[in-house]
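Please supply some protein, with fold tokens.
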Amino acid sequence: MIKPLPSQKIIFFVDGASQGNPGHAGIGVVVYDDDGRCIKRISKYIGKASNNVAEYSAINLALSEAFILKAAAITIKTDSELVARQLSGQYKVKSDNLKPLYIQARHLIDALDEVKIVHIKRHLNKEADRLATLAVDEHTS
């Protein structure tokens, strides 16, 4: 694995998957350094959850990884427009089950130097989606 230097910018592609919504859920995170090299892939089953809970869980895992990697600046790319807009302040968080995850994400974001949350089209997030789905499939098969 390539170890990024603290001065590097890190890019995270994140996704959550839920079979049943709520149902068995997994998250996928793909980590790239600022040269575009993949430095880590994470596929994790998170139990029964909604798709939005899985999306937030993936973002919170990415934010935690940013601390581990000592990243100076990070960009998180997600295909969840809802989560991206809630974290940017464009939408309010109305769901009681999302509020704790939102608060956790805001605390992590506020503790990092530079964080960008970017909404991307689903077809640009295939690897994170594959990892999230893999986590669910491995647990349920």
Notes: The longest helix spans residues 51-68. The chain has one domain: 9-135. The helical segments are 51-68, 81-88, 99-111, 126-140.
